[in-house]
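Tutorial, part two.
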Amino acid sequence: MSELKPAHSLGDIKTLGIKGTTASVNIAVRPVSALVQLFAKKSNEKQLMKKVGFATQSGSADIKGDFTALPVAPNQWILSSQSKSGPKFGDELSDQVQGIGYVSEQSDSRVCFRITGLDARTLLSRGCRLDLHPSVTGAGFCAQTQMAGCGVLLHQVTDEPVYDLYVYSGFARFFWNWLSQCAKQFNK
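Running the prediction step on this input gives:
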């Protein structure tokens, strides 16, 4: 019997970064060590946020030392960590929120695309239904939307702008192709 090896949904693509000689948009797949969905039991939202150590409100992420909390629905967040493994992070959170919430390990469920460059906002506005104008959004902005027919969790990491787009793994290749094609007009 052959041994199963973990595979990335974009693993056969040799160059994941899109850069041209005058690149005004850069696209890369950002590895995420751990991704968990955190749920607060009814009326325990504030207690859960305090216990885990983050504070978010609708439309705004909270970046902590070893994780980022991204609100996805009332009493629900995606927590992304670069410093911990998925199962370990999920187990630690589960112990912390016992009785007031619960955790679902999601590390393999989404791919994170990082979009940077002078025209990053313009590129995203071509396929995004959200108003990404700097007068409306800024660092920390977070929302779910549709882009190219895919559900996307969009997080504006910095004002420069730098965006992280979380897409379900099953749609990652299609979304990558769409982003790549759209980016060509900016990168000559």
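Residues 172-183 form the longest helix (12 residues). In part three we will examine how such features are distributed along the chain.
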